[in-house]
Design brief:
This protein is of the alpha/beta class and 351 residues long. The chain has one domain: Rossmann fold, CATH 3.40.50.720. The protein has 13 helices and twelve strands. The longest helix has 22 residues.
Length: 351
């Protein structure tokens, strides 16, 4: 069975991936390498702390000495890179951390992987994989009539975040073609689901609505995103890891294009049903000034992964949203520790 290193495994998608592969006994062991920034929450995997199959190392993927030691000691059969700064608004306010982590961090991780890979025997080399998790935002913006993004779409990033992810994608490709590292890349649409940090649209709207706060919507609310439940994304990553063609890219989408306004309305309807207030939650909606360079539409054509690997999303948007709203309503302690900042104070107190 496989031994998997996950970078950024305390984050939203990484923690869901680790929980999935351990709960379903899909690997022998997992080593989680995470810098533990504001978005890396130890509570996301607290229930696995006593699982002998799970190990954690606090490290920046840019720390080559510590990363190569961790790789060499663990002897992975695959490395999956989730580690990234990912919030567009933060990248507009301060681009440098995005370049540091997403570009330079990925470069240094690739170099460590190269050093490890070259020392493997031929049998181990044939089984080893490096999978890089990326985003559909590298492809830019679509009009309402444009075809959806696919693996052949030209890169056209429009924010410091997406530009940094595009740079990382190109580095991964170069390490395959130049050094023969068996890489795979996935580009996904917008994720949602349990353990997502509350600065993102869906958890922010759920928590604000529960507290009777305003629901701020950028511009006219007509920006369109393709929404992908995080569990579906994780299963897509597994499909690519197990069956994907080395050197290839696979787009993973949710087949759920919705405007931001439709997303907020769906959340309000779910809360009106299960968490009613004195007035309909839609009364909390407010429209605020649009952010700079706000891409109008993203959409993913996932024909390649469906036809080649047999993957497609299991969750409809309606079922996925109902599950997500219920998760946040049922995990108030986790939410309170995030919004209060207690999770960071506890982390700092343990260092």
């Amino acid at each position: 069975m496989s031994r998997i290193i996950v970078t950024g495994g305390l984050g939203f998608i990484g923690s869901n991936f680790i929980r999935l592969i351990l709960n379903e006994n899909l690997c022998e062991s997992v080593l989680n390498i995470d810098k533990q920034t504001y978005a890396g929450n130890p509570e996301n995997l607290a229930d696995l702390n006593d699982d002998p199959r799970y190990q954690f190392v606090k490290a920046d993927i840019g720390d080559e000495d510590l990363v190569i030691k961790s790789i060499t000691d663990f002897q992975p059969t695959s490395i999956i890179n989730f580690a990234a700064e990912s919030h567009v608004d933060r990248s507009i306010d301060s681009p440098e951390p995005f370049v540091e982590t997403n570009v330079l961090g990925t470069l240094r991780l690739l170099q460590c992987t190269k050093n490890f890979f070259t020392e493997l025997n031929e049998s181990a080399k044939s089984k080893f994989r490096f999978l890089h998790v990326s985003t559909d935002e590298v492809y830019g913006s679509l009009s309402s009539t444009d075809p959806a993004f696919s693996e052949t779409t030209s890169y056209s990033p429009n924010s410091p975040y997406s530009a940094s992810k595009a740079g990382a994608d190109h580095l991964v490709r170069s390490y395959h073609h130049t050094f023969g590292i068996p890489t795979l890349t996935t580009n996904c649409s917008n994720n949602y689901g349990p353990y997502q940090f509350p600065e993102k649209l869906i958890p922010l709207m759920i928590l604000n609505a529960c507290e009777g706060k305003s629901l701020p919507i950028y511009g006219d609310g007509a920006n369109i995103r393709d929404w992908l439940h995080v569990e579906d994304h994780c299963r897509g990553i597994l499909s690519v890891l197990e069956k994907g063609r080395v050197g290839e890219t696979y787009c993973i989408g949710g087949d759920s294009e919705k405007t931001n306004l439709e997303v907020v309305d769906t959340i309000c309807d779910a809360l009106d049903k299960d968490h009613p207030a004195n007035a309909p939650h839609e009364k909390l909606k407010t429209f605020v000034k649009d952010r700079p360079g706000h891409d109008r539409r993203y959409a993913i054509d996932f024909s390649k992964i469906k036809n080649e690997l047999g993957w497609e999303p299991r969750y409809s948007f309606e079922d996925g949203m109902a599950q997500t709203v219920n998760w946040y309503l049922s995990n108030s302690k986790w939410c309170d520790n995030i919004t209060s900042g207690n999770y960071q104070r506890e982390r700092l107190g343990n260092e």
